[in-house]
Amino acid sequence: MTGSDPSSRSALATLTLSSQNLASDPLLALIAAISPPYQTTVILSKKKDEALSLLTGPDTLTHRNAILRSLCGMALHNALDTLGSSPALFLGGHSAPSFAGASPVSALAMAGISSWMSVASSLREQGKEEVAVLIGQLNEYFVARSFLVPSSGPTLADFDLYLAILEKVSGGPLDEMVGSNVHTRRWLEQCDASLKDLVVVASKNAVFSKIPIPTLPQGLEPKARPLPVFFYGDEDASQVAEVASAAGTAVAAAAASSSDKSNKSNKADTNKATPAAKGGELTDEQKKAAAEKRAQKNAEKAAKKPKADAAPATTSADEINISALDIRVGKIMKAWEHESAEKLYCEEVDVGEESGPRKIASGLRPFYKLEEMQGRTVLVLCNLKARSLVGFPSHGMVLCASNADHTSVEFAVPPEGAKIGERVIFEGIEGEPEAENKVAKKKMFEKLAPDLKTDENGVVVWKGHKSMTSAGSCKAVNGMVNAQVA
């Protein structure tokens, strides 16, 4: 079956893919459906093992990320990156200027899109812990940015990373994981809304493309935001407070139960008998009634507060510190390439346990050669629950320092002379590590990881507290400064 007439002479590219590709890759399905049919021939094969490919003139692309970037850019003469002819600027509007000579900003943006898509590919091979760390990193990244690269809207990179996150965690669990990371939440909500708009466009094109419309995973449920109350600037503080009090009284009255109707009726009669002050201000009687009501509410709130000697029902994030994590000195005794995950190394790491070395998988193949892994002394986070990474049983995490876009990664290492199995502590912080189940249930690593960094000297710190062993402090192996450690 073809998405457009294969005999069309105007087609510039031929995309060959299987139904399995469409079902497992909603972004690929959307791009294929939105691509102009007079420029793209889409061959949808019934073979499950049909290789994904894009034929453009004499060249054939087979790498998924390269195919998506090509479809959004050069392969179709930038039809999906031109304002007015595309429902979104999939490359941020940075590909079209290449005909006249790309600007430095556009060149960096195009490189950034490629890098962020590589991050998305790597994330798909990792677990929820890595997603939680990334959410915290993105929150810092988006403090001064709207999207991953300079653009007026989400680009191909934003959509790809967003969908990679949703493959690991979505809906309610994602909302809980995002928590108070407001900048990441804003970005997630914008990507979700933009993707839904693209689905509408793809649905209209389905009449011609014959490509099934993908079902998007569940993103965040946008939270209701109250409408603002406007003032003209000539009110004094008491007037503003009175307006707020009157608004609160009106809301409370609307939500009251039917058993209070008689009392409210009496109060209403009293208010009717008292004329309102000029200019819409509250009368003395109304002010007094509002003050009494506020006093009653404050008394009720005080009664509901737990007593000082009562134990809190839950442990807040502020009461958790880095001592909850069991970070130890380890040594990689053996390392080999994962048989099916191109980003992963499999390792046996000695952390001083009688049971022998632990098996740990790490996404370090893009950053270290295999011979650089063997015999390396590292820091290992040990009280994480064991999990399967692409079929490999991984129990722990080798800690590394990385920059914001995860293009540069360095081992976090103990000083020379530190003992294998020795626990890493942080200056001025005492406490014993928590059990693996509690760390997972309370999401302790996700809460603590955003503050685990290197300082201006490359030393591993948590909220400014230096990491220490019996031989001294721990550092990024090449001295990477102000980097995230995870």
UniProtKB/TrEMBL annotation:
Residues 321-425 form the TRNA-binding domain. The keyword Transcription does not apply. Keywords: RNA-binding, tRNA-binding. InterPro entries: Glutathione-S-Trfase_C_sf (IPR036282), NA-bd_OB-fold (IPR012340), tRNA-bd_dom (IPR002547), Tyrosine-tRNA_ligase_regulator (IPR051270). Residues 261-270, 284-308 have a biased composition (Basic and acidic residues). GO terms for molecular function: tRNA binding. The keyword DNA repair does not apply. Residues 255-314 are annotated as: Disordered. This is tRNA-binding domain-containing protein. It comes from Cyclotella cryptica.
